[in-house]
Amino acid sequence: MSVRVPAKVNLQLGVGPIRDDGYHDLVNVFHAVSLFDEVTVERAPGLEVRVQASPYSRVRVDGVPVDEDNLAVRAALLVAARLGVEPDVAIRIRKAIPVAGGMAGGSADAAAALVACARLWDDREQPVLTRDDLMDLGAELGSDVPFAVLGGTAVGLGRGERLTPALTRGTFHWVFATADGGLSTPAVYAECDRIRAERGEAAAPPRVSEELMTALATGDAKALGAALTNDLQPAALALRPSLRRVLDAGLEFGAAGALVSGSGPTCAFLAETGEDAADLAEALDGTGFAEQVLRADGPVPGAATR
């Protein structure tokens, strides 16, 4: 059973105050894009995991865990427990989504494993686990996992797991510049809190951007580019100052909008047309500032069997 699952870019990431459970209140406008990991599961005598880069990808997978620190493994265990079966499964993960790049690659693999294992073990005509059930299970694994199951474009509230699909017209064209090495999501949030405390800024409850939602609903790439925001970007730039020159270069080359994707360090650029995206990717690649330059379109569906 094979499942293909997309990366995400955060069109708006509004970070509010810290909650009692240690998470921040978020407004997270997710957008699924056409960079895909593939997770394949097969029945096996025990639980085993193999991770490799997709044939067309230069993603580095050396540091990806193959034990219960891997979210896909935890997803398989969660489905097995829910269905009352032994977690005897071989999991193969083929990655094209940057690792620790702010594009939810680990969460995407977890979502794919949820869907794949549910189909493998729950093969009745009326499956016990619905897509909504899998999204609920995903919320137990991480804030980004439910969206990777859902896909498309959606507004996430709470810590990002409470999702409402967003009206989106047309296709948006993206260019992503990856960096050498990742950024720790907890470290970026901690740096965000530190910067705010240093400046004496109180974190206000975030609100969904009306300008962003209008741009999505009308398919206006230029307006969407102007409305892109990420409250974690100052923290990511403080931890990785070299990202600023990447963002500046993309804007100089004509991007309609630019921001650090999620907690970084991948930089995302929105182009007005597919041709503009091709030109932008070529120009960025020529700077040598990025480890890899990738093109993708969005929105695309969430985790789905092949």
In short, what is this structure?
The protein is an alpha+beta fold. The chain has 2 domains: 2-165, Ribosomal Protein S5, domain 2; 172-298, Alpha-Beta Plaits (2-Layer Sandwich).
List keywords for this structure.
4-diphosphocytidyl-2-C-methyl-D-erythritol kinase; Ribosomal Protein S5, domain 2; isoprene biosynthesis; ATP-binding; 306 residues; Alpha-Beta Plaits; 36% helix; kinase; 2 domains; 4-stranded antiparallel sheet
Structure description:
With 306 residues, the chain is of the alpha+beta class. It folds into two domains: 2-165, Ribosomal Protein S5, domain 2 (2-Layer Sandwich), CATH 3.30.230.10; 172-298, GHMP kinase, C-terminal domain (Alpha-Beta Plaits), CATH 3.30.70.890. Helices cover 36% and strands 28% of the residues. The chain contains ten helices and twelve strands. It has helices at 71-83, 105-121, 131-141, 145-150, 185-199, 210-218, 221-227, 233-239, 243-252, 274-287; strands at residues 2-18, 24-43, 47-53, 89-95, 153-157, 162-165, 172-178, 229-230, 257-260, 267-271, 292-298, 304-305. Strands 1, 2, 3, 4, 5, 6, 8 and 12 form an eight-stranded mixed sheet that branches. It has a four-stranded antiparallel sheet with strand order 9-10-7-11. A hairpin with a 5-residue loop joins β1 (2-18) and β2 (24-43). α2 packs across α3 and α5 (185-199) crosses α8 (233-239). The longest helix is centred in the middle third of the chain and has 17 residues, at 105-121. It is globular. The chain starts with a strand and ends with a strand. The mean pLDDT is 94.
